[in-house]
């Protein structure tokens, strides 16, 4: 198995390590805590690789406001 740090996974996904940690905390990206570091199985990156770019729009976004 190939494991990656959050920074390594972020480079592959084109996002920051902080964003990868947010995906882990949201339960969207499986990971294992090893000491202070999160380790991500490289195969699991496909679970979050297909996503809409950017943030939800303020109009009609997550909360359905118009």
What's this entry about, in short?
This protein has 66 residues and is of the alpha+beta class. The protein has 3 helices and 3 strands. The chain has one domain.
% residues in beta strands = 15-25%
| Arithmetic mean of pLDDT | 84
Radius of gyration: 14 Å
Main β-sheet, in a few words?
3 strands, antiparallel
Based on helices, strands and strand pairing, what is the structural class?
alpha+beta
The total of beta strands comes to 3
Strand neighbour order, sheet with most strands: 1-3-2
What is the multimeric organization of the chains shown?
A: single chain
Order of helices and strands: EHHEEH
Low-pLDDT segments: none
Terminal Cα separation, in Å?
46 Å
The share of residues in helices is 25-40%
* SS summary, helix count: 3
Whole-number total of structural domains: 1
Tell me, briefly, the overall form: globular
């Amino acid at each position: 198995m190939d494991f990656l740090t959050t920074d390594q996974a972020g480079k592959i996904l084109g996002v920051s390590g902080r964003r990868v940690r947010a995906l882990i905390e949201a339960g969207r990206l499986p990971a294992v805590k090893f000491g202070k570091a999160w380790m991500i199985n490289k195969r699991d990156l496909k679970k979050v690789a297909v996503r809409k770019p950017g943030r939800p729009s303020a109009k009609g976004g997550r909360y359905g406001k118009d």
